[in-house]
Amino acid sequence: MRTVKKYLRLIDILSTSRRTKEEICDRLQIEERTFYRYINELRNNLGMEVINKDFKYYIPKGADDTLKPRFSEEEVTYIKSLMSGRQSRSPLSKSVLSKLHQHSSLQALVEANEQQRISEYVQEIEVAIKTGQQLRLIKYHSSHSSTVSDRIVDPLALEVNYSYLRAYEAESGIVKSFRLERLGGVALLDSPVSIPDDIEKASKDIFGMEGGTAAVVSWMMTLRAHSLLREEYAGVSQSIEKLDDNSYRFSCTVNAWEGVGRFVLGLPGEIWDIRPQAFVAYLAAKMGRFGKKGDEE
Hints:
This protein is an alpha+beta fold. 38% of the residues lie in helices and 25% in strands.
């Protein structure tokens, strides 16, 4: 079911916006090779037209978008089982996916179902944090080890717009961040939390990075960059200053260059006057020339 939902989210992203490979990988929490596998699957096996223009991927809207393909009775049954979480694999998945990108209502249904699932996790986690109880993270899918397992953790906080749980894991002896969409379930345990006093309880920055040495970054940006920043990342409003109708100043503390760098590198020509110099050097190493507005020299 997890892979099918990844495809549904990818189809939704490509059908409604134009995104770079890095932006899509970040949204879906997948590696680059997985991204290319998904794109090839959409193109070669599902027959979808996926365009790559100016390093941004999208599914074009055709003239026949109003002619919605019909779902068979078996496909409808499969969709219902997917929504309820009962279906993991099915030979119907390809036929369903090949039609879904033309059905915005069904895309919305998938997203609503996912949000409802995450909301239920959040409620349970908040109870655990408030009462000081341990949690069992059921069938957590680790992107680092590519394993699925249950984890016993001591919850600390919900972060990044309630998409991550920061918690101490006794088995590994460190504080980790767990992405809620990678959970198969959450169970409240009777045992109380027991976090050693010497454990560093690091928190994530706005861009989802933790650890490292904190540093203040700032830049000027256009209205479009400002809108995308507020859309993509929660809690940034207090870090933005409006200068005029198309110019904004952003400044915040980050834990590492990687997270904030992904956002900045995705908007060439829309962000300038970047500071500090160490961050500019990081961007330059990633993408040649950067840090000037438009085509200014």
